[in-house]
Amino acid sequence: MTEHAMPVHPFYAYCQTALQEIEQQGRYRRFTSLSRRSAHYPVYDKGNLPQQDKPVIVWSSNDYLGMGVDPEVMNAAITAVQEYGAGAGGTRNIAGTHPLHVALEAELADLHGKEAGLLFVSGYVSNQASLQTILTSMSGGWITFSDQQNHASMIAGIKGAKGSDCVIFKHNDLQDLEEKLAAAPASAPKLIAFESVYSMDGDIADIGAICALARKYNALTYLDEVHAVGLYGAQGGGVSERDNVADQVDIIEGTLAKGFGVHGGYVTAKKEIIEYLRLAASGFIFTTSLPPSIIAPALASIRLVRQQNWRREKLFERVHTFQNKLKDADIPFLKTESHIVPVMIEGAERCKEVSRRLLEEYFLYATPINYPTVPKGAERLRLTPNPFHTNEMMDEMVTALKALL
């Protein structure tokens, strides 16, 4: 070692070993660089393929309605940059609150039939910050009843709340939930945290029944509608709007990055809850706010989606058409009532190999989903048909899957 050489910290060796283990387990994830053609969604370019001029059809985007490339939405972003600049300029408390933030929060509250809304920099942060803040209030002692398949952001918020307990109930199992609620101390503050559409299996929670249990056992309800906003309900308010139970849910969380095609997260609730989160959630207070160049297109997108039901109708027509094509070709997939179509391919290495060959040989991009996102043996390609996938595109994917499976 030279006189000024830094000693090698043990963490470097730890990282090398951990990476080798992840690689051996088939869990090493590599990015696929894709460039979306805004005028031809879901067509993308991928520059490092052997045939660089051949476009790629993407089948795993979370821009479910293609709102991120809608001309009105894009023009709203361009106008906002020209008028207000590229960044927000500060946190919401320090020069970072624009009239557009106020308008968007009001729009989101109205969408879900709530008194108020609060924007966060992402859906992950909105879940983590909101749940952690709620569950550390009232001197702690909360008991959270969390669905077995809740998103990592919800789990992070629940685990980060010191002094609270978490009880995990079986996925979408109302009987198990009630048994656990009944066994809890009656005096303890309780919260039920769950999702509407679960993104890997595409199944949907019985929101009304869960809310009924919450009333029976005096529990607060926290609903993640991230994979449902924009897509379900008469105006895109999510499954809670579709099922006419939004008024029974205490807190509805959502994203601007999927059905609405832009970026950011939010929560909506009664004004007292939103005000408390605004003044107490560190994940909100100490983060630079979303810039007007994001807020403006998000607001434009929501207003379009609320007004134009044809987008939702077209989405589900495409989903059902694709499911029928898979069924006719005897390709194994999970048939659900949601817009998510998981094509089952057991084995992490096999799943990744099919995904690789789809891209390199057929120029079709489908994300492989492996452990720990799903249990071992439940690997799949997560496909999300959108209103712009044509019959010809669907036939290409079915033909390719038939050849590779």
TrEMBL record:
Q: Name one GO molecular function term.
A: 5-aminolevulinate synthase activity
Its domain of life reads: Bacteria
Please write the reaction equations for the catalytic activity of this protein: succinyl-CoA + glycine + H(+) = 5-aminolevulinate + CO2 + CoA
Biological process (GO) annotations held by this record are: protoporphyrinogen IX biosynthetic process
- Report whether Transferase shows up as a keyword of the record: yes
Q: Does the keyword Repressor apply?
A: no
Supply the Pfam families for this chain. Answer: Aminotran_1_2
Cite the EC number. 2.3.1.37
Under SUPFAM superfamilies, the record lists: PLP-dependent transferases
What is its EC class? Answer: transferase
Cofactor(s) listed in the protein's UniProt record: pyridoxal 5'-phosphate
| InterPro entries according to UniProt | 4pyrrol_synth_NH2levulA_synth, Aminotrans_II_pyridoxalP_BS, Aminotransferase_I/II_large, AON_synthase_class-II, PyrdxlP-dep_Trfase, PyrdxlP-dep_Trfase_major, PyrdxlP-dep_Trfase_small
In the UniProt record, the signal sequence range is: none
| Boundaries of every Aminotransferase class I/classII large domain copy | 55-401
Gene3D superfamilies for this protein: Aspartate Aminotransferase, domain 1, Type I PLP-dependent aspartate aminotransferase-like (Major domain)
UniProt keywords, alphabetically: Acyltransferase, Heme biosynthesis, Pyridoxal phosphate, Transferase
Q: In which pathway does it act?
A: Porphyrin-containing compound metabolism; protoporphyrin-IX biosynthesis; 5-aminolevulinate from glycine: step 1/1
Q: Which family does it belong to?
A: Belongs to the class-II pyridoxal-phosphate-dependent aminotransferase family.
> Which PANTHER family has this protein been placed in?
2-AMINO-3-KETOBUTYRATE COENZYME A LIGASE, MITOCHONDRIAL, CLASS II AMINOTRANSFERASE/8-AMINO-7-OXONONANOATE SYNTHASE
On assembly, the entry states: Homodimer.
- Name of protein: 5-aminolevulinate synthase
Organism of origin: Commensalibacter papalotli
